[in-house]
Amino acid sequence: MPDSLPRPPKIPMTSSSCVCVWTRGWASLRFTASPCQVYQSLAMAQSANKLFTPPRSQQLARGKDASKSSKKNKDSKDGTSSPSSRDSSNQSPVLTPTSSSTTLNDIRNKPLPPNTTGHGDHGLPTQPSNPGQQGNVPDRFGPMGGASSPNGGNANARLPPTVVISPTPGHIPPPGAAETMPHDLAPPKAGQKSLMIHRGIDNRDAIPEGLRTPKRQHSSRFDISAHRELEKLPGFHEVPPNRRQELFMQKIDQCNVIFDFNDASGDMKAKEIKRLALHELLDYVANNRQVITEPMYPRVVDMFAKNLFRPIPPPMNPQGEAFDPEEDEPVLEVAWPHIQVVYEFFLRFIESQDFNTNIAKAYIDHSFVLQLLDLFDSEDPRERDFLKTTLHRIYGKFLNLRSFIRRSINNVFFQFTYETERFNGIAELLEILGSIINGFALPLKEEHKIFLTRVLLPLHKPKSLSMYHPQLAYCIVQFLEKDASLTEDVVLGLLRYWPKVNSTKEVMFLNEVEDIFEVMDPAEFAKVQEPLFHQLAKSVASPHFQVAERALYFWNNEYFCNLVSDNVEIILPIMFAPLYENSKGHWNRTIHGMVYNAMKLFMEINPQLFDDCSHDYTEQQNSAAEREALRERKWAALAEKAEQRRLSGGLADAPARLQVGGVLSRVDEVDPVTEDNQKRLDSLKLQDISSRRPGGHERQNSQSSARSR
């Protein structure tokens, strides 16, 4: 404390007084002493003119380092030296707290140092009344919490309670550090929830469940087995060969037991026994020949179904906004340690050279395939990857199921496109179809062409296109490589579903169009160039720079430029206006350079046509005002004519309105309602006449046939 400030006086310790020690941690003080005791102490100090009040500058200097004060404080004899003083015996027992907690220490019937021991004694308490506060007593207090005087003397005294503002543990900054507000007093930051009612909670796991946003722990529901106690069976190498098939069946039975993996500590021994049994089955099938017998087929398929076929609820957040597959993280399957080995074992089983498809047909049927397709809705991408491989192996092994698998996948796509727009395994199913399309025989069947136009192309419509677009584009390009005549249907289908306001989807569409250009035949390009470049012109003129940039990247494709140069007479008049306007008017400078390169290419291909387009564009801009005025005049004339008809429509006598001097007026003055009714009557008469004629012909035909008989 600076020398200019007066030394805090010692207040006489009487039976009716208490001491309030001033501190810089003045924010949000909590006095546990009674108001009467504090008031008596302050009143005595004021009456004696001994109340120490620091200047306002010292009250506001909360972050000031005590070590930066005057050097004279180190040698002062009044006991108010800073904590950095060399002689700890000369330090004041009063700390400068960084927190604002106060404690009432009732030291009645407790020993205290005498008041005549030194300057540093200000009547501080020896031991807090709360036993939980003993661990928070500073080091300069004695072993029992008493204040150690410079001379080390102690005396027994009976004093009234004393109010002491003491620091809270954990908020004492080092010398020179700026003092901060305590954690429970600091205002919450932006987006941070206040935990004022849970003071001192810094661990996320310690937050009560009611304040945390709940999170789903599993993405599916298993039918837990009632009996889950297992005993470890011997390995296949530990039994003679004639007992291995029986042991195989016993291990299959163990693998049929379903455990609850939501309880990580439950049935740990039995879970490990099942996992080891699955690995032993996997190794036995993979590393041995002539071990698969006919009785194994139903048991293996049944074990696969019991472990994997389960209801998969739609993903949803327990609280907050709806589940977004593009934003929210998927919930992984907690039972994956067993599920993974089941998939691996089944794959090795059907890939084995001993696998007999004719025997397995009775068990891997339509119902099995449908339940397998339902599992593609799993949130766990690891499971969907195994499902993709499993379904592809079944498609290759079972020829009788191929058509049914394709139709079932089509039904999944129809439901996704037109009903739910939510299915997690669309990308994996498209990967399977990409491999299937690659193996289609030529010429393509009509069934496959219908699949392209009615199933694959409408998949561009859902909002979640980004989740499966690369696989979808691959399938469409595979079709065009098989049959180039489908180019027109594909391009017109893309233009039909072209996004209007979704720039992300538009960039994906442009990527797909460039992939189609790579396999497009020049003859097919001529059929679609006009509608396609009208859309490209809109994309080039888009204010979204990513859309415009992606469209202009087409001019970096050599094959695209060759197609454009062969048809420049049709393409340049369509593209000139957006290119010229964006060369100066677009807000992104990168677009300016790309537009310049595209216009330079057109100029090099056909300079005369480029000049003609430039001249036409200039004339069109110059006559824009005149055309706008002509348009306004036409609208005004139309509005005036409509007003006249509205006024003339109020007359009740229609014949008088239609005749002038006994002669019918012009056709455009006929009442529109009467004219419309007359047209409807005439159309009905024509329909009646046309409906009668086929009947007459039929009767004539029947009469002529009867005569011929």
Automatic annotation (TrEMBL):
Annotated Basic and acidic residues bias: 62-78, 676-685
Subunit composition and interactions: PP2A consists of a common heterodimeric core enzyme, composed of a 36 kDa catalytic subunit (subunit C) and a 65 kDa constant regulatory subunit (PR65 or subunit A), that associates with a variety of regulatory subunits. Proteins that associate with the core dimer include three families of regulatory subunits B (the R2/B/PR55/B55, R3/B''/PR72/PR130/PR59 and R5/B'/B56 families), the 48 kDa variable regulatory subunit, viral proteins, and cell signaling molecules.
Protein's job: The B regulatory subunit might modulate substrate selectivity and catalytic activity, and also might direct the localization of the catalytic enzyme to a particular subcellular compartment.
One GO cellular component term noted in the UniProt record for this chain: cytoplasm
Compartments reported by the entry: Cytoplasm; Nucleus
Protein name: Serine/threonine-protein phosphatase 2A 56 kDa regulatory subunit
Pfam families reported in the protein's UniProt record: B56
Main location: cytoplasm
